[in-house]
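Input record, target 12 of the design panel.
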């Protein structure tokens, strides 16, 4: 069976993919619970039904992972990894069709939380496993892994599977991320990493009618937040070999992200040479007439792979000192490396690029993903080269 045969068989399976995607969407696997046991049972039913060898690996029974295994004649093994957990559905009223209805409309579209990230791709992987299992023989072994907890760092999913030695292979394709579809196909050669930061402000409580007798932790926090945000002006030191990849990534994001305001245009231009910074959680205070003695703020700070996260950490700590507000401390979670990237010149990257070009008629753009995927765990803990190709 050639690549073209596989591709035309996949084209004929469009309805099967939609129905499987719809079936997966009906299981609410949203965080904070992030339960994936329903999805995993559903996938197991499909794989068993088609006689495909599979195994469930679970550290937490509510968050299992499942693998479909196809044996090849060589010793080489290719992995595909996709996740089953999804982000929360938000306001129920904001949905055209209910978030977990898995409604398939007349135009063939599947609706619901997780269709694009990434139960659609998981459904496509299930069908691909079925198509490959019907071949006489495979040269290389192929494993399709369906994981939990990707949206919260892979704790019971890819990170646990990688750290416990369950993920083994020569190459790995991550089916996540915005790949630009058929029109603007792209390959993720890497992911950004983080330097998550928390500010903690401590003060002294007092009655709200005599605030001058206290030391308001929220007031102190408010003063320091803009200083941490200045890390967005810190130019990252990046390896020279990344220059071309960053240029190509910017071409992709200029085309695929809204560019209707100066702020958005500027945001894209700065995306890789500077950290992105967002203060996303603030909490503090207990009652309207009590001066708070505690407040905290959490920042999402993302760094380009190849940059020097420990230098960024130093700079954040320096900025907090420069703010010169007593009783406010910064906790910066930074490791020596952020995210990961593969060389655009590796045989794996060339081969994936050629395959995508044959199937879409377009040469994919190589880019760095602005967020993180399971690739970060698979690459950093299992040491398997990872490329991302989503939809
Ligand atoms: Zn995803």
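The sequence produced for target 12 reads:
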């Amino acid at each position: 069976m050639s690549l073209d045969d596989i591709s035309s068989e996949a084209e004929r399976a469009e309805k099967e993919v939609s129905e499987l995607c719809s079936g997966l969407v009906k299981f609410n696997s949203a965080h904070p619970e992030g339960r994936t046991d329903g999805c995993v049972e559903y996938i197991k039913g499909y794989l068993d039904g088609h006689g495909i060898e599979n195994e469930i690996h679970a550290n937490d029974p509510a968050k299992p992972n499942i693998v479909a295994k196809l044996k090849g004649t060589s010793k080489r093994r290719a992995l595909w990894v996709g996740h089953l957990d999804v982000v929360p559905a938000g306001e129920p009223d904001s949905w055209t069709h209910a978030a977990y209805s898995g409604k398939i409309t007349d135009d063939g579209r599947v609706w619901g939380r997780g269709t694009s990230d990434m139960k659609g791709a998981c459904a496509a992987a299930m069908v691909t496993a079925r198509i490959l299992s019907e071949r006489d023989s495979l040269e290389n072994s192929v494993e399709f892994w369906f994981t939990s907890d990707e949206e919260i760092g892979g704790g019971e999913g890819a990170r646990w599977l990688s750290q416990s030695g369950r993920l083994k292979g020569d190459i790995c394709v991550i089916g996540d991320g915005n790949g630009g579809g058929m029109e603007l196909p792209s390959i993720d050669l890497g992911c950004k990493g983080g330097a998550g930061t928390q500010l903690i402000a401590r003060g002294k409580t007092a009655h709200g009618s005599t605030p001058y007798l206290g030391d308001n932790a929220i007031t102190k926090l408010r003063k320091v937040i803009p200083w941490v945000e200045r890390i967005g002006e810190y130019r990252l030191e990046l390896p020279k070999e990344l220059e071309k990849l960053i240029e190509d990534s910017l071409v992709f994001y200029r085309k695929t992200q809204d560019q209707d305001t100066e702020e958005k245009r500027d945001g894209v231009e700065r995306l890789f040479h500077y950290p992105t910074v967002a203060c996303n959680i603030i909490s503090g205070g207990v009652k309207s007439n009590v001066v708070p003695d505690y407040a905290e703020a959490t920042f999402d700070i993302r760094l380009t792979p190849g940059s020097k996260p420990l230098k960024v950490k130093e700079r954040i700590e320096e900025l907090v000192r420069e703010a010169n507000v007593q009783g406010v401390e910064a906790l910066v979670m930074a490791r020596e490396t952020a995210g990961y990237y593969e060389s655009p010149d590796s045989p794996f990257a060339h081969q994936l690029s050629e395959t995508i070009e044959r199937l879409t008629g377009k040469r994919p753009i190589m880019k760095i993903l602005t967020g993180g995927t399971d690739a970060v765990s698979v690459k950093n803990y299992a040491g398997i080269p990872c490329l991302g190709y989503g939809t």
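The chain has two domains: 3-177+373-388, 193-238+273-332.
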